[in-house]
UniProtKB/TrEMBL annotation, chain A:
<keyword id="KW-1003">Cell membrane</keyword>
<keyword id="KW-0175">Coiled coil</keyword>
<dbReference type="GO" id="GO:0005886">
    <property type="term" value="C:plasma membrane"/>
</dbReference>
<keyword id="KW-0812">Transmembrane</keyword>
<keyword id="KW-0472">Membrane</keyword>
<dbReference type="GO" id="GO:0006417">
    <property type="term" value="P:regulation of translation"/>
</dbReference>
<dbReference type="Pfam" id="PF10099">
    <property type="entry name" value="RskA_C"/>
</dbReference>
<protein>
    <recommendedName>
        <fullName>Regulator of SigK</fullName>
    </recommendedName>
</protein>
<dbReference type="InterPro" id="IPR041916">
    <property type="entry name" value="Anti_sigma_zinc_sf"/>
</dbReference>
Automatic annotation (TrEMBL), chain B:
<dbReference type="InterPro" id="IPR036388">
    <property type="entry name" value="WH-like_DNA-bd_sf"/>
</dbReference>
<dbReference type="GO" id="GO:0006352">
    <property type="term" value="P:DNA-templated transcription initiation"/>
</dbReference>
<protein>
    <submittedName>
        <fullName>Sigma-70 family RNA polymerase sigma factor</fullName>
    </submittedName>
</protein>
<dbReference type="InterPro" id="IPR007627">
    <property type="entry name" value="RNA_pol_sigma70_r2"/>
</dbReference>
<feature type="domain" description="RNA polymerase sigma-70 region 2">
    <location>
        <begin position="28"/>
        <end position="95"/>
    </location>
</feature>
<dbReference type="InterPro" id="IPR039425">
    <property type="entry name" value="RNA_pol_sigma-70-like"/>
</dbReference>
<keyword id="KW-0731">Sigma factor</keyword>
<comment type="similarity">
    <text>Belongs to the sigma-70 factor family. ECF subfamily.</text>
</comment>
<dbReference type="InterPro" id="IPR013324">
    <property type="entry name" value="RNA_pol_sigma_r3/r4-like"/>
</dbReference>
């Protein structure tokens, strides 16, 4: 091809001005790499245009350079730096720092939650223990109370029974109360009388059992008593009996009667000599 | 000239730049930012946009240094082309935006006309400026239209109401004159 003609065609001038098609541009670049004359002409034109462009130079504000120096990623200077920064720069990317912070916060949160849960469950266990201990204590207290009561009654009974001259008479129910059984304690010297109900039928609320002593064929009021299940202990009767041939039990109205109702006689037993 | 004295070390500079050397970049910026800013400013004619574009251009240069082929042309020419293309693209994008300031083609001509007497010349380049002023006005106008306005030959012909052949001839004559002016 005729290089001189090509140079004179004006395409190189259009090329440096940026006014060529992509195909023309590739053509110029290709030919300039083959023909030194074309390359030389191109360099001259470029230099001329560079200088032309420089004629319009305007100093940009310093902020542009500052921004660029912040924005671009430069290699750290190698030679003068004896102490190199750590390869992992925590400030280079915000996310690891953020992630670490988040992880620490979350861990602390979970620990606090776990500890709080532990405390609450511990508290609940303690409360349950206290409650059961309190119940146990209460039942023990009432048990001790019962034992106290029983003991004092037993002591009274023992004191009563251990006095000299005390006699024991067993009364058995007749056909009106076949399973009825009870004991009468009587001391002729001290005139004290007491009963211990082993088994007697329960009565209506307005009724009571009444003990009678029979002396010379005459019934004498020996006092009223209950037949409840909780009255297993010895009941001391509030009467003084100095003579008795036999003892009998009738059902009377509450508070007792002056004379026994014979139709309700349940048991009778003579005092053995 | 300052720039030419540094040409010797252009390959060294390029090597340093590809290694992401900060000092090399600073040198590159100090050396060429005024020329590139002047070109961009001449194209977009808006200080704020020109500053944004200049920043983008240096980022592009920085990122595409690998793509620069020294066998195909000079580094400064390559940088000028990056700047020019970026600015012209931005100018066209702005023109096609319906909400933005609408510039008719007529206004574009006025802009090109105003270019002769708007910019304050950099004191470093007063000598260059004098040389440029010796260029024939009709040729200068054409260079400005094509180089700073991004006009194709056809657009320039239509704009100046000249035959396409005349435009082509005049472009060649303008650059040949420029070449001769700077040779002396």
């Amino acid at each position: 091809m005729n290089v001189t003609e090509y140079i004179a065609s004006g395409i190189l001038e259009s090329y440096v001005l940026g006014a060529v098609s992509d195909q023309e541009r590739r053509e110029v670049e290709c030919l300039s790499s083959i023909y030194p004359e074309i390359r030389q002409e191109l360099d001259h034109l470029s230099t001329a245009l560079e200088q032309y462009a420089q004629a319009y130079s305007v100093e940009p504000p310093a902020s542009v350079k500052e921004n660029l120096l912040k924005q671009l990623d430069f290699e750290k200077p190698v030679a003068p730096a004896v102490v190199r920064p750590l390869p992992v720069d925590p400030w280079k990317d915000g996310s690891p720092t953020f992630r670490t912070t988040w992880l620490v916060a979350a861990s602390v949160g979970i620990l606090v939650l776990g500890f709080a849960f532990f405390l609450v469950s511990q508290l609940r266990t303690n409360q349950q223990t206290v409650a059961s201990l309190r119940t146990a204590n209460d039942s023990l207290k009432s048990e001790v109370q019962q034992l106290h009561t029983q003991q004092s009654r037993a002591e009274q009974s023992l004191a009563l029974l251990s006095k000299p001259g005390m006699r024991t008479i067993e009364l058995r129910g007749n056909d009106k109360a076949p399973s009825g059984r009870m004991l009468v304690f009587w001391n002729a010297k001290t005139r004290e009388v007491a009963v211990e109900v082993r088994s007697l039928p329960p009565l209506r609320p307005d009724q009571q059992y009444q003990l009678w002593s029979l002396a010379g064929g005459q019934p004498i009021d020996a006092g009223v008593f209950e037949a409840g299940s909780n009255n297993l202990a010895i009941q001391r009767l509030n009467r003084t009996i100095d003579r008795a041939d036999a003892f009998a039990v009738t059902v009377e109205k509450r508070g007792g009667s002056p004379t026994p109702t014979l139709s309700t006689l349940l048991a009778m037993s003579p005092v053995d000599a | 000239m300052k720039r030419q004295s540094s040409l010797v070390s252009e390959s060294v500079l390029l090597e340093k730049l590809i290694r992401r050397d900060q000092q090399a970049f600073q040198w590159l910026y100090d050396q060429y930012s005024a020329a590139l800013y002047g070109v961009v400013l001449r194209i977009v004619r808006d200080d704020e946009q020109a500053q944004d574009l200049l920043q983008d251009i240096f980022v592009k240069i920085w990122k595409n240094l690998d793509a620069y082929d020294a066998t195909k042309g000079r580094l400064f020419t390559w940088m000028l082309n990056v700047s020019r293309n970026t600015a012209i693209d931005a100018l066209r994008a702005r023109k096609t935006q319906p909400s933005g300031a609408i510039r008719t083609d007529e206004e574009s001509v006025h802009i090109v006309d105003r270019q002769h007497h708007t910019e304050q010349p950099n004191p470093d380049h007063i000598g260059v400026q004098e040389v440029v002023n010796r260029l024939r006005p009709d040729r200068k106008q054409l260079i400005d239209l094509v180089y700073f306005g991004g006009y194709t030959h056809e657009e320039a012909a239509e704009e100046l109401n000249l035959p396409l052949g005349t435009v082509k001839t005049r472009i060649r004559a303008a650059l040949q004159e420029l070449k001769q002016l700077f040779k002396s």
